Amino acid sequence: MKNQIKLFALLLSLGFLSTSCSDDNEGETLAPLAGKWNVSQVGSTVNGQEVLVDAPQNESGCNRDYLDLNSDNTLEEGDYDSTLAPCAIYTKAGIYSRSHNNLTTVVDGVSITKDIVNLTLTELKLSDANGVIIVYVRD
């Protein structure tokens, strides 16, 4: 009987601890943001439904365009373009920051904030103020 009371008290204490602690990151994911993310799909929301297509900016026969977010809050955007040479890579450097579920990038002095719609170990989905959606997959 004493063991049952102790077990009940322990379970009750654990229950209070788990419900009394507030989560300051409510609504945020714990998946890491840093990493190389390849552009996979683009789209928008039409009549309340997401419409996504394979990213047309990815050059056929080339690696996919990417966003490389480093742990020191620097970034590199990579764009493959075959206009001048087959699969030539053009990169731009910048910085980024995350505030809750927003990702702000600054490249060439231009600051852009996008909502983080989804962040898992393998997918990063961003949406801008105009409803444009970009889906990245981790390299």
From TrEMBL:
Alphabetical UniProt keywords: Signal
Residues covered by the Lipocalin-like domain: 33-126
Pfam name, any one: Lipocalin_4
Top-level taxonomic group: Bacteria
InterPro entries recorded: Lipocalin-like
Signal peptide: 1-22
Entry keyword S-adenosyl-L-methionine: no
Record's protein name: Lipocalin-like protein
Gene source species: Flavobacterium cheniae
